[in-house]
Design a protein that fits this description.
By secondary structure, the protein is of the alpha/beta class. It is built from 6 helices and 6 strands, in the order H-E-E-H-H-E-E-H-E-H-E-H. The site of ligand AR6 has 25 residues, from helix 2.
Length: 173
């Protein structure tokens, strides 16, 4: 697993600044924008993103859709929809895993080699951060082990709590 861990990096900051092939957006089912990281991405990408997304017909929870990055340094935005946390018995774990996995599948289909993830569902959607980090790290590691075409996955933590959780978990791998 050492080789896989060399392809995972933790970054603290704003995902819209990342110079990667694709950044992932923690969107909602409409794909028409919102608060949190979604709002930041729409502001930084410009109004062309909303215009483009109006034609996509939304996105199911646990699925992902790709768009151009427009005014972002990133070439693409992969919009995924994580689950709203409702106590843990509504398939939340599986849906969060699916959001990460589908994002990486869409990335590979589009030739993406470097990709940055926010901490999906851990803001407005209320998913417990420790639990979300375990799912994110496990799902990314499994995918990387089977997909050498992805060179680098960045976990971009915006809040200090997520940064500390990921620092600890990744150093234990
Ligand atoms: N860069 C990286 N991460 C960020 C940024 C940023 N610029 N801004 C916030 N975060 P959230 P969710 C982190 O609420 O929980 C939206 O309204 C933040 O610290 O953005 O999946 C959508 O439209 C947190 O760790 O997404 C949906 O309606 C993480 O991003 C809903 O929120 C996710 O927090 C989705 O909720």
């Amino acid at each position: 697993m050492a080789e896989v861990m060399d392809r995972i990096e933790l970054v603290r900051g704003d995902i819209t600044k990342m110079e990667v092939d694709a950044i992932v957006n923690a969107a909602n089912n409409s794909l028409l924008g919102g608060g949190g990281v979604d709002g930041a991405i729409h502001r930084a990408a410009g109004p062309e993103l909303l215009e483009y997304n109006r034609k996509l017909g939304g996105c199911a929870t646990g699925d992902a859709k790709i768009t151009p990055g427009f005014r972002l340094p990133a070439k693409y935005i992969i919009h995924t929809v994580g689950p709203v946390w409702r106590g843990g018995k509504r398939d939340e774990d599986r849906l969060l895993e699916s959001a990460y996995r589908r994002s990486m599948e869409v990335a590979v289909e589009n030739g993406v080699r470097t990709i940055a993830f926010p901490n999906i569902s851990t803001g407005v959607y209320g998913f417990p951060k420790e639990r979300a980090a375990d799912i994110a790290i496990r799902t990314v590691k499994e995918f990387l082990a089977n997909h050498p075409e992805i060179e680098k996955v960045y976990f971009v933590a915006y809040d200090l709590q997520n940064y500390e959780i990921y620092s600890r978990k990744l150093s234990q791998e």
